[in-house]
């Protein structure tokens, strides 16, 4: 067992970063000790510290974007949008805290006064994915800190350097060093956090398999908070539209942005049989023009590599498995460099497959399903255990009403891509995509619990009915 973790640049195979594996109990103890003082600080101080964090990120935005691009392989322009989301998260979380978990006064019958306030849970463990190594963990950490929690943060073992830089930025902004602790490690350290008695909750973003494992590990512990943000097998349905060119662009963006490594990426294109041929031809033209290159290349690429060779091998193998089970290739997945994880965008028609695997193929691989009518399109879209994002392109307002009413997902869009969700809205899915604890604007909800207090300035009271009369004659003078 290695005692260090090494991070590799996907685009070059070069070593990027190395660090000793963390001592999980020691880090949790430091966060636990720092918690009470932070929770007792006025909200205004916690908010001010988060604003300083946003400024600290602004001051280092070039360096952070560069590191994200190098460690994930995503194009530099894509990494810059991730940094913008990190900065934007602060103001959004401040507004969300006051709207969703702020203080409220209620006036009841007979002048009874009640107050609703929120308390932090304690030490929250944040487990991050590799595809958005800064933005998505930050989407748990900022609301957790505003609410008064301490945080132990374990970035993905594939992107620890970005995680380390994020933690440095919190500290530079004045977040106490012991309050946010970096945990360097992999699944073993994730399991140690899950099992630790002093961790009050896990805020997780990652794959459904890992989310389910954590859910099982938490069985019988109703006192622990668990927010699961997991993957998707997201459908994009294209129905009657005169604008095939725009529909094709929306499909290509949904499927191939960030090399398809977004939880909201479209994995299945469901299209009316009569539109299939012209639409597929148009998407193919776009896919043929997509530049796949190093994140810093000039001209700028649309896609970089996927995260590592194992992921690239898994995708090309999946393409072959779909083919050998009846899928008809529309555009093959090609690996231009034998030892590096670059893959080209790929499409396969799986309409005639008897059984389609309902798994998230986390890369630029789009499966096409042709259907005869709108009812069949909705049935196909729902033919998944996941339920994160779904989009309808084209169709009438009636089609959209029907789509919205029948689709089982946390994001249901019309004439917009499946991905690119806003931080200013709730973000989460159902089924294998999440456990009904939406993140983004609703992250405030799982970072604090409500406490209701009935309050009066004096202990004035009466028992009301059901008491014996007082025998006044028996009372002394
Ligand atoms: N819904 C969302 O908001 C969202 C956002 C981004 C990514 N994702 C999903 O994340 C996945 C890609 O990320 P990934 O491959 O890094 O996910 P992953 O599940 O492999 O890892 C996520 C984190 O969990 C840790 N971990 C792994 N096994 C663990 C265990 N048994 N116990 C505790 N922790 C453990 C990892 O070390 C990592 O930090 C995709 O499925 C994607 O759809 C979801
Ligand atoms: O990979 C998963 C996230 C993709 C991204 N979603 C968000 O950024 C949600 C907003 C937030 O968490 O603040 C997308 O939809 O592209």
In short:
With 477 residues, the protein is of the alpha/beta class.
Provide structural commentary.
The protein has 477 residues and is an alpha/beta fold. It has 2 domains: 4-230 and 434-455, Aldehyde Dehydrogenase, Chain A, domain 1, CATH 3.40.605; 234-423, 3-Layer(aba) Sandwich (Aldehyde Dehydrogenase, Chain A, domain 2), CATH 3.40.309. Helices cover 39% and strands 20% of the residues. The chain contains 14 helices and 19 strands. The chain has helices at 24-40, 43-59, 61-72, 76-101, 135-146, 160-172, 187-195, 208-217, 244-256, 273-289, 309-324, 374-381, 397-406, 443-447, and strands spanning 4-8, 15-20, 104-107, 113-120, 123-127, 150-154, 180-182, 201-205, 225-229, 234-238, 266-272, 328-331, 346-349, 365-371, 389-393, 411-414, 426-427, 439-440, 448-455. The strands form 5 sheets. Strands 12-13-14-11-10-15-16 form a 7-stranded mixed β-sheet, sandwiched between helices. The protein is globular. 49% of the residues are buried. The model has no long low-confidence stretch (mean pLDDT 97). Nicotinamide-adenine-dinucleotide binds next to α7 and α8.
């Amino acid at each position: 067992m290695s005692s260090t973790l090494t991070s590799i640049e996907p685009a070059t195979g070069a070593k990027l970063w190395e660090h000793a594996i963390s001592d999980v109990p020691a880090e949790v103890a430091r966060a636990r000790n720092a918690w009470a003082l932070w929770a007792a600080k006025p909200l205004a101080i916690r908010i001010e510290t988060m604003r300083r964090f946003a400024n600290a990120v602004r001051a280092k935005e070039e360096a952070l974007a560069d590191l994200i691009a190098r460690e994930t392989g995503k194009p530099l322009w894509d990494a810059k949008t991730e940094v913008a989301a990190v900065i934007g998260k602060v103001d959004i979380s401040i507004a969300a805290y006051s709207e969703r978990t702020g203080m409220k006064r209620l006036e009841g019958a007979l002048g009874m006064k009640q107050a609703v306030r929120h308390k932090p849970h304690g030490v929250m463990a944040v487990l991050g994915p590799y595809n958005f190594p800064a933005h998505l963990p930050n989407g748990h950490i900022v609301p957790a800190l505003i609410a008064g929690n301490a945080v132990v943060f374990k970035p993905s073992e594939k992107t620890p350097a970005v995680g380390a830089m994020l933690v440095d930025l919190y500290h530079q902004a004045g977040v106490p060093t012991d309050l946010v602790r970096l945990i360097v490690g992999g699944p073993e350290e994730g399991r140690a956090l899950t099992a630790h008695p002093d961790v009050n909750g896990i805020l997780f973003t990652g794959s459904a398999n890992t989310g389910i494992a954590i859910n099982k590990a938490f069985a019988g512990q109703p006192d622990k908070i668990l927010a699961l943000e997991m993957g998707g097998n997201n459908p994009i349905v294209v129905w009657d539209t005169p604008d095939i060119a725009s529909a094709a662009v929306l499909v290509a963006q949904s499927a191939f942005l960030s090399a398809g490594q977004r939880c909201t990426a479209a994995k299945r294109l469901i299209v009316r049989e009569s539109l299939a041929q012209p639409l597929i031809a148009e998407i193919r033209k776009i896919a043929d023009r997509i530049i796949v290159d190093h994140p810093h290349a000039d001209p700028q690429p649309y896609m970089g590599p996927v995260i590592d060779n194992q992921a690239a091998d898994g995708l090309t193998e999946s393409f072959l498995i779909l083919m050998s089970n009846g899928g008809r290739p529309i555009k093959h997945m090609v690996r231009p460099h034998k030892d590096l994880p670059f893959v080209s965008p790929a499409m396969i028609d799986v309409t005639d497959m008897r059984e389609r695997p309902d798994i998230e193929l986390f890369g630029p691989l789009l499966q096409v399903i042709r259907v005869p009518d709108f009812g069949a399109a909705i049935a196909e879209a729902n033919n998944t255990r996941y339920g994160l994002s779904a989009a309808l392109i084209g169709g009438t307002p009636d089609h959209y009403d029907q789509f919205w009413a029948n689709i089982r997902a946390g994001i249901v869009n019309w004439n917009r891509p499946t991905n690119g969700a806003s931080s200013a809205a709730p973000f989460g899915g159902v089924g294998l995509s999440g456990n009904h604890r939406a993140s983004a604007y609703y992250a405030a909800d799982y970072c604090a619990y409500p406490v209701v207090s009935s309050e009066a300035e004096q202990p004035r009271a009466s028992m009301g009915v059901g008491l014996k009369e007082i025998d006044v004659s028996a009372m002394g003078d």
